[in-house]
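Notes from the 1:1 (GR / supervisor)

We went over the backlog. Supervisor wanted to see one worked example end to end before approving the batch request, so GR pasted a single chain during the call. The sequence is below; no edits were made to it. Supervisor asked that the structure be written out right there so they could see what the output format looks like.
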Amino acid sequence: MKPVRFGLIGCGRVARYHAQALMEIEGSELVAVCDIVPERADDFSKRYGGDSYYDHRALLEREDVDVVCIATPSGDHPAIGIDAARAGKHVVVEKPIGLTLKEIDDLIDACKSKNVKLCTVHQNRFNPAIVKLREAVDQGRFGKFSHGSIAVRWNRGQHYYDQAKWRGTWKEDGGVLMNQCIHGIDLLRWMMGEPESLAAFTANHFHDIEAEDVGVAAIKFGSGALGTIEGTSNVYPLNWEETLTIFGERGSASVGGVAVNRIERWEFDDPDYSHSLGDMPDPESVYGSGHSLLLARMAEAIRNDGEPPVTGEDGRAAVEMVLAVYRSQETGSIVRFPLVQESERIAEARGLGGKR
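Structure output shown during the call:
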């Protein structure tokens, strides 16, 4: 088996899940790590292996790096990804893939022009319970959809935001919908299909940040089905749940737990159609265990010239839904898809003037 050699850019909160996953994947190797804080890069290198760098451009000069995982602050994702594509590296980008559609489109175009693969990290697609739910959707078990919902009810104290100045800012992060809830938003769209229109409200009740700590939205999908989004970091005192629920004419199902990891209800018109998963314990953290499967599939796609497990377009679509929520809050109106104007707050913060 031809080895796939990974570089990791950004050695912060989520990076260890990438490193641990690569240690588990046969035929994959972490050969280089990078962080702008030298001590962090060096410590990470000692713990997980790979040579340490302090400038991602130096890491990208290595000929033995096939693919890079980008786990930096969100606002940096597209620019670093474009640098990687221009260096001929395949690209894996943590969520969100970017903060504006223009920047994301530039990244997608750069990867296409250099013929490299682009993968967005939405690892919850690989939770066993979510895999079973998607199987039911693909088999038509629900029949015609009625409606679906995602609820992300977590806790993030002020200390979480104080640990890194970029968190909760419009320029580099966004709020709970862009940072925490976007995984669930990706799952809702993946199951229900493309959205047609959306109306939303957001607020900041408890945190000293620029962006929202709670948001709700009502969605109409292209199929005519309806949906809701609820995301918050205000749940006291600890993370409560991330629950995805789908209702159809011939079936209903709910996947919950702290990180959409456990089937709570599973009821279909065929009484013999069982999910057969038994009790699924909550993971040690809300990151779950899906990074291993996602990165293994990406390595396989590189070896066999296949499709990335979660495409750049998938990542873009989830961000578009969040930006539509922000746009609806800003204008007090229903927003239709495709989104033709960015969220003013994020676009202006990033110097784009609000236009795509």
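Supervisor's comment: The two ends are 43 Å apart (CA to CA).
Batch request approved.
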